[in-house]
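Run Galactokinase through structure prediction, thanks.
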Amino acid sequence: MTAGTDTVAHLFAATFGGSPAGFWRAPGRVNLIGEHTDYNDGFVLPFAIDRATTIALSPRDDRRIRLVSTFDEAVVESDLDAVEQRAFTGWSAYPLGVAWAIGERRGAPATHGFDVAIDSDVPVGAGLSSSAAIEMAVAVALNDVWGLGFDRGDLARIGQRAENIAVGAPTGIMDQSASVFGQADAAVFLDCRSLAVEQVPLGFDAAGLVLLVVDTKVEHSHATGGYRDRRDACERGAAAMGVAALRDLSVDDLPRAQELLDDVTFRRVRHVVTEDARVLESVAALKAGDLVRFGELMDASHVSMRDDFEISVPQLDAVVEAAQAAGAVGARMTGGGFGGCAIALLPADEADALAADVLQVFAERGWREPVSFTVIPSDGARAL
Ligand code: ADP
Ligand code: MG
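Sure, done. The structure for Galactokinase is below.
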């Protein structure tokens, strides 16, 4: 038993008594490149990280559901009637939302409840998708114990429905896809229109590189309004250009877009169109083992988000500048923007120095203390 399973085994025994039917684990994720492309039917390239949610779960003979998490040790009591009525409160909306979404996808509500104990080392709200980790851990577990036979694509869609409908967060399917399709030493290349998935080898380790994540601790205070505004601009741009989604435009269409659109809308469109192109070129570069080119694409992605999409903040720009000064192969903000994390791909023996530089820069400017850590491309959701 590993450390994570120990914790949930004890929590399960202490809360519900006895041993669980099994243990399951699902990771968080980081997005390497492809930002604000998901809702434009475009491309993303996340990987599953070595931080995950671990659960111990047993099916029950009745309709009750009991949940406990190290996140908040109060035991939540619910049942399948509440699930069908989508009557959820607090964090239990994530696991219970998955149970609801499974029923929706099967076209038949669940008939048996379950007990589940949950632990996670994915930082919550840091942009590494602790939400997809808990959803996918519960989804693979229920798929197994209820004998449902859903494939990984189904499970990702179930997690997205839980997040959209049960939790009420209007998110795409990237996080869940990364969490279920993740593979050690590989990224998950996802086409957000067809939902086709391809694992792309990364080779960071063999090249002596690591990916450092810097959580700027800047809250996404304008995130909701900013996100809505960017989505609206993309929809406007696509409509004016006569396409279903910005995915349908290429860089060759940009001169026409510049003539047709106002300056702000044009720059929003240019970010998405060039970002899609950068994801495709990244996949080609990684397949060719050209990490230098991949790093250049990361840098270009950051500039595009900063200047065209205007979703960066000074703290994110400062991390990217420090990374470039420290000799990183590439660096960019990651996630929806307006705060959150930046990532840097750099030689393993430079990571501590960059983390120290970033601390110093933030202290000098009187910013909140950032938190830095490396992440390793890891396997996706699974039974243990
Ligand atoms: P993130 O960027 O980490 O996905 P979200 O706001 O999307 O941030 O999701 C975080 C929420 O997910 C938490 O507030 C909590 O409700 C739920 N959550 C995540 N991990 C756990 C856990 N281990 N136990 C209980 N709830 C969790
Ligand atoms: Mg989330």
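The first helix runs from residue 3 to 16.
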